[in-house]
User: What shape does this take?
Amino acid sequence: MKPKLVIILGPTAAGKSEVALDLAGRLNGEIINADSQQVYRFLDIGTGKPSKAERERVSHHLIDVVNPDEEFNAAVFRRLATEAIEEIYKRRRNPFVCGGTGLYLRALTQGLFEGPGQDPLIRRWLENEIEEHGLAVVYRRLEQIDPTVGSTIHPNDRQRIIRALEIHKLTGTPLSEWQRQHGFQENPFTLLKIGLNRERPELYDLINRRSEGMVRSGLLDEVRGLTGKGYGLDLKPLQSVGYRQMGAVLQGKMALPDALEEMKQETRHLAKRQLTWFRRDEATLWFHPERQKSEIFEAVEIFLQ
Assistant: This one.
């Protein structure tokens, strides 16, 4: 019998953490983080990590796993999350996976196409291309080679852009075709996917207020502290929404009010992309996180029986 797994997913700022905490607290659970930014140490304010009190109330996994300059990807996530699920079951508790990184959730629940090994010469060539012409130019090349995968990789995701182009260079086949052939047909768990969403004006208002709260809480100082520890602003986690804008302020490239407005806009765009990804899965049950709390609890309780 396959282990049961509850996944709480949805766009940023929808209220996933609150719902997961409530469910895990009431139903003998522990939470596994599936947010690609919360795995990094020292990135606290801009990632919306659970507070110390929340982590003491319910056990959390895959938070503060690596430093900002260390490698972390979907394959590493899958391995660590699977290990955490096994350990949680050994304690006779229920695992709740919570996060908005669709690639990580797919890797965990459907498998992962890992592709050919890395080629240092190709990677060095691509890195040089980026340094000489800029990431945007290299990203446009990816879109021309592989429009399908280009639409699922963010223009600032340097690591995944390089990997997609590397696979094409090595094999002559676009990454999207490799993924199509792989099929993501692994099925190691019995799943209940709870999707959280709000009406767009409500969600966007929450995003705007959350962004303002992060800046008030010291996001700029957090980024300044990261650079003081020797972490470069070009690192992948520091190129994510919020951190990239605060980095531009520190470099004198943007004024703080302009950076905040761009942060809000890019976070809204992120939420839209997340919803596009998650809505492809017809198995997901969608709820409003506040108005339908009782329905969420009932669905999960029945599933775990």
Observations:
- The chain has a mean pLDDT of 93.
- The beta strands are 4-9, 29-33, 60-61, 94-98, 190-196, 285-287.
